[in-house]
Amino acid sequence: MTDRLRISLQKKGRLAEDSFDLLRKCGLRFSIRGGGLLARVKNMPVDLLLVRDDDIPSFVANNASDIGIVGENVLVEEQLSSKSPLNAKITMRLGFSRCKLCLAASTTGKVQSPADLNGTRIATTYPGVTARYLAEQGLDAKLVEMKGAVELAPSIGIAESICDLVSSGATLEANGLAAFETILESEAVLIQSDRELSPAKADILAKLMNRIDGVLKSAE
Ligand code: PRT
Ligand code: ZN
Quick one: which of 3, 117, 212, 220 has the most CB atoms within 10 Å? Predict the structure, then answer.
C-alpha cells in the first residue's frame, strides 16, 4: 500500500471552492460529490478530508490529517483557546479568503474607539483573539460569546460593540455599525504539525508545495 498524503479542507463555505481550485490548478484530479467525508485524488497519492473549517487545526494537530487549508483567523483562535498547546502551524500563506477581524460599534453609540471599551461588553465568536487584544492593550471589557449573527448584538442590547470578520464591510453597514479597530488580518493558510512525515509523504508534500508556489507566483 502506498503512503497517501491526507489534506483537510473545508467541505462547504467561503474557503471550499478556492481551496479546491488551488489544488486543481496544481494538477490534482478529484471530484467532490454528495456527503462523502473523503475524496480520493486520482492522479496523485493524496486524499482529501472534507470537514467543517473549525475542525481543521485540531485534525492536523491530532494526526487525523497531515496538512490542512484553513483561515488564519480560525487557526489563531484555536491556538489561543485550546487548553493544551496546539500542534499546528502555518507552512505557507495562500493569499485567498482575505478578511479582517475588527472591532465595530454603532456609529451613534458611546463606543467609538478602543479606549471606550473599558467597562463595556463585546460580542464575538472569537473570544481567544479578542481577549488577547484586550490584554495586550490593557483594556477591561466583558466578552459575550456568540455562535453567529454577532452583528445583531448591539441592536438587541446584549453588547455595546462586536468583534467580527469583515471583508466588504456591507454587513456592518447594513446593521448601522462601523469598524474602529482591526485586531487580526487573515488569509487562507496551509498548516502542518511538527511531526515528521514518512519519506514518501514528505516527497508528495514537497512536490505539492512546489506546485502551489508556482500557481501563486503565476497569479501575481
Ligand atoms: O461550515 P463551516 O464551519 O465550515 O464554515 P463557517 O460558516 O464557519 O465559515 P465560512 O465558510 O463562513 O468562512 C470560512 C472562512 O472564510 C473564515 O474563517 C474566514 O477565514 C474566511 N472569510 C473571508 C470570511 C469572510 N471573508 C467573511 N466576510 N468569513 C466570514 N465572513 C462573514 C463575516 O463573519 C460577516 O458575517 O461575512 C460577513 C461579513 O462580510 P462583509 O463582506 O459584509 O464584510
Ligand atoms: Zn466554521
Answer: 117
CA of 162, nearest ligand number? 1
Dump pLDDT digits (tens) for 126-157: 999 999 999 999 999 999 999 999 999 999 99
Residue 141 and residue 118 in contact, taking contact as beta carbons nearer than 8 Å: yes
Q: Is 53 in the pocket of ligand 1 (CB under 6 A)?
A: yes
pLDDT digits (tens, 9 = 90+) for 172-196: 999 999 999 999 999 999 999 999 9
d(CA 206, CA 27): 14
What's the confidence (pLDDT) of residue 1?
62
Average pLDDT on 114-126 reads 98
Return the SS3 of 48.
Answer: strand
Q: Are 183 and 102 in contact (CB under 8 A)?
A: yes
The domain that contains 157 carries what CATH number? 3.40.190.10
Tell me how many domains the chain contains. 2
Instruction: Give the integer Cα–Cα distance in Å for 19 and 1.
Output: 27
Cα–Cα dist 70/2, whole Å: 26
Provide the domain limits for residue 121.
Answer: 99-186
For the complex shown, is ipTM > 0.95? yes
Q: Distance between CA 37 and CA 203 in Å, rounded?
A: 25
C-alpha angle 207-214-196 in degrees, rounded to nearest 5:
30
Q: Decide whether any atom of ligand 1 lies within 6 Å of the 71 Cβ.
A: yes
Q: Does position 35 have pLDDT exceeding 90, yes or no?
A: no
Residues having C-beta closer than 5 Å to ion ligand 2: 53-54
